[in-house]
Amino acid sequence: MREFAKVPPTFWIGKRGSHIRQLGIEAQHLAIYLLTNPHANMLGVYYLPLAIIAHEINLTYENSLQALLKLSKIDYCSYDESSEYIWVHDMAFDQIGTQLKPNDNRVKGVNTAFNLLPDLSFLSAFYDKYSKAFHLQKNDKNNSGLEAPYKPLVSKEKDKEKDIEKENDKIKEDNIDKANSVISLDQNNNLKSQALEVLQFLNQKTGRIFRPVDTNLKLIMARLKTGVTVMDCRQVIAKKTREWKGNPLMSEFLRPLTLFNATKFEQYVGELVITEETTKNEAHSFLS
């Protein structure tokens, strides 16, 4: 956790602050939170699930998402939905400075932090924005230029024995995996069939044509593997369609990537209120 964070005074009165104020108090609240929250770092690129945002700034999940979308539209930040990483675009300049000298001690720290980041959708844009100011260098893992130190023959023999043991263990594991894959084949076929049914229902409700490709089906199958039912999935789709279909900001999220995200889906299921009437309606929709 950082001990302090820098917030420029122009946040409130500058051009950027003026744009943020026009988005409303919730977007302004979120913007200052993204600079000062305990999960942030000096780069402004860090892991931050929407559920944590909603909890820590005391907004609903949907209001947090809408505020984040508004900030994204004015180029304040970007959000990688699949990894749940955020990039606050100018935060590194605010926290570090607008230009570092090559011999500045912070250059090494910035490069270390940058090269530890996972593969994110906006990583290339981050590099383009900051590479000159902070002298960023991408790691070249295939060209270390170093040779391994010499080992005594005894050590080499022991290493060889360990390698053989590892190879034997791997063969055993592969055989077990093959046996398990045969057993689970029927289960996977059943899950895929259920996922197809859910995807068809999503297309029917939203009027869209999401194709039955692995990218879409695996998301749904992963949720079914946790114990949720096809009925649960249909009810989530029906509920979110009613809530989002007429909303220009939210309608684009009526898609498998959002609805069947592991964290989000559990929240959506938790929002369901199961009544006798709901069960009858869903049962009728299965037959129609």
List the helices and strands and how they pair.
Blueprint (H helix, E strand, L loop, with lengths): L9 H4 L1 H7 L3 H12 L8 E3 L2 H7 L4 H13 L3 E4 L4 E4 L2 H6 L8 H11 L7 H12 L18 H54 L7 H12 L4 H15 L11 H4 L2 H10 L4 H12 L1
Antiparallel strand pairs: 1-3, 2-3
Helix pairs in contact: 3-5, 4-5, 9-10, 9-11
The CATH top-level class label of the largest domain: Mainly Alpha
Q: How large a portion of the residues is in β-strands, by DSSP E? A: under 5%
What is the structural class?
Answer: mainly alpha
- Poorly predicted segments: 141-157
Q: Name the overall outline.
A: flat
Number of discrete domains = 2
User: Strand tally, please?
Assistant: 3
- Proper CATH architecture of the largest domain: Orthogonal Bundle
Terminal Cα span: 54 Å
Largest sheet: 3 strands, antiparallel
Descriptive overview:
This protein has 288 residues and is mainly alpha-helical. It folds into 2 domains: 10-134, Arc Repressor Mutant, subunit A (Orthogonal Bundle); 182-282, no CATH class. Helices cover 62% and strands 4% of the residues. It is built from 14 helices and 3 strands. The chain has a 3-stranded antiparallel beta sheet with strand order 1-3-2. The longest helix is centred in the middle third of the chain and has 54 residues, at 153-206. It is flat, with a radius of gyration of 25 Å. Residues 141-157 have low confidence and may be disordered.
